Amino acid sequence: MQTDWIAVDWGTSNLRVWAMAGNRIVAQATSEDGMGRLDRDGFEPALLRLIEPWLGQRQTEIIACGMVGSRQGWYEAPYRATPCTPLDFASLVTVPTRDARIAVRIVPGLKQVKSPDVMRGEETQIAGVLALKPGFDGVICLPGTHSKWVHISAGEVVSFQTFMTGELFALLSTQSVLRHGMAGGGWDDAAFDAALSDALSRPERIGAKLFSLRAEGLIANLTPAAARARLSGLLIGVELAASRPFWLGQQVVIVGSEALAKSYTRALAAQGAAPQMLDATEATLAGLTAARHKVTA
Amino acid sequence: MQTDWIAVDWGTSNLRVWAMAGNRIVAQATSEDGMGRLDRDGFEPALLRLIEPWLGQRQTEIIACGMVGSRQGWYEAPYRATPCTPLDFASLVTVPTRDARIAVRIVPGLKQVKSPDVMRGEETQIAGVLALKPGFDGVICLPGTHSKWVHISAGEVVSFQTFMTGELFALLSTQSVLRHGMAGGGWDDAAFDAALSDALSRPERIGAKLFSLRAEGLIANLTPAAARARLSGLLIGVELAASRPFWLGQQVVIVGSEALAKSYTRALAAQGAAPQMLDATEATLAGLTAARHKVTA
């Protein structure tokens, strides 16, 4: 099948590319050439290393989202200000390339000036949700390194808020004193549930509850599986305590990787909410496809 | 002046030693041979490298506190269970040494079984406070990597609680996405005060407030000095929200390094408390001196 365009999700740590025929995937590839390890001149070669086999005689159109459009990325795609639609044709930024076989456009991120906040990449997943669920009004939760909660109304991003939950989990489980009690991994649903409930009712105790994982590891035989699940439950619990105005009584769609989306769904279900789940990659591809349709429309 | 004993504060990152004549300092030395970089056979040589010049014909008595007594340390000094006095002569642990010129004893840490918690090193500083302020009843706050709040009554540690505040500050300011907005250091008291107040009144928002430091750095020209002070204010604010039962209406002594003790004093003063400050090293030495007196009494 012929590749008629290429979808690119280019984050801080990874580069993922898909050869597309319309909205169908023809081939895919990934590398660890994320923005974080490239200087400005490294982006085009890193992309070509993955997509070279898919290029033909005609110029191939490429739509990219993510940190590739940040100031430290390949080419800056300035933030658009909310409230606004997640995508806007006129705002896609064309990247100058040396190789004439590719025509690269980057989807800009969004910024919120009042209650300052930013996103890059999630706007494309939001556009994907709206493409897959036309007319959706409600809240989109995008758990991850920097979890986002997003109010959607009439096809626009009305407001959003970012939480450092995922980055805190990564730092605490691998770089802090708590790492000693988590070697070996594993998971314990009951520990997750208890920690979640605890953090939702007493979020201010987070600093002490974190250290308790260390203390219980030393003197109360806390297992690595329970420690890991409790750390997650505590951090997600504090996030849900603060994001209550987003999810309480709202229609919520969770867009994330399977494991993380399941944890958030379980957590919200325990609070009486009934979120829907949508795969993050599916949302990204639907969003990039929507961006491409706007370009070619 | 003759060295009649040696005081040792041996933590995860540093080794600090003092040649003492009674309760006076004759000489001091430090190295980076903390517990974290030594295996079991490395402790005695690391100590001798620093104290060799102070050793004479007679055997020299050495009293050590800190992580040196942990399971991963030189020789385990099992935790004593609270409620208890911070020091107990009979519980000092004698370390077998190869070099007959030294007689090394380690002060054990404390554990709290209900609401599991542990300390190692702080028990010695607490003993120091009680030596310097005989009859003290009230609360001792020991800010640091793992900040401790300790209820003291009738010379005993009644209960305590540890917060990961200092480790969170270190991880977030040097390892997280927030590090980009903090290069260059500096400090901003007004930013600290505002963040403190914010976190005390809405502690559950910590995850979002942390990310706002990144967002404001990108789109609202937040300075590194303000970002750094706000990070500190947010984390200390959440700690004070949870430690309120310790400090509200209590006599509080803060034992810490000068800069950190000043931040906690400023924070508590803003809440109407009037803590006293005591230098951490002074407290450690007073505690080790008290332990030595108990040994030789």
Q: Could you say what the CATH architecture of the largest domain in chain A is?
A: 2-Layer Sandwich
Order of helices and strands of chain A: EEEHEEEEEEHEEEHHHHHEHEH
Helix fraction of chain A by DSSP (H/I, runs of at least 4): 25-40%
SS strand fraction of chain A: 15-25%
In brief:
Chain A has helices at residues 43-51, 122-132, 165-174, 189-201, 206-219, 224-242, 244-247, 258-270, 280-296, and strands at residues 5-10, 15-21, 24-31, 60-65, 80-81, 93-95, 102-106, 110-112, 117-119, 138-142, 147-153, 156-163, 252-256, 276-279. The first copy, chain A, is α/β, with parallel strands linked by helices.
What does this 3D model show about the protein?
Two copies of one chain form a homodimer. With 297 residues, chain A is of the alpha/beta class. The first copy, chain A, is built from nine helices and 14 strands. Chain A has two domains: 110 residues, Nucleotidyltransferase, domain 5 (2-Layer Sandwich), CATH 3.30.420; 166 residues, Nucleotidyltransferase, domain 5, CATH 3.30.420.310. Chain A has a six-stranded mixed β-sheet with strand order 3-2-1-4-7-6, with helices on both faces. A five-stranded mixed β-sheet of chain A has the order 12-11-10-13-14, with helices on both faces. In chain A, helix 2 crosses helix 9, helix 3 runs antiparallel to helix 6 and helix 5 packs antiparallel against helix 6. The two termini of chain A are 22 Å apart. Chains A and B meet through strand 12, helix 3, helix 5 and helix 6 of A and strand 12, helix 3, helix 5 and helix 6 of B.
Q: Secondary-structure map with pairings?
A:
Two copies of one chain form a homodimer.
Chain A: E1 5-10, E2 15-21, E3 24-31, H1 43-51, E4 60-65, E5 80-81, E6 93-95, E7 102-106, E8 110-112, E9 117-119, H2 122-132, E10 138-142, E11 147-153, E12 156-163, H3 165-174, H4 189-201, H5 206-219, H6 224-242, H7 244-247, E13 252-256, H8 258-270, E14 276-279, H9 280-296
Parallel strand pairs in A: 1-4, 4-7, 5-8, 10-13, 13-14
Antiparallel strand pairs in A: 1-2, 2-3, 6-7, 8-9, 10-11, 11-12
Helix pairs in contact in A: 2-9, 3-6, 4-6, 5-6
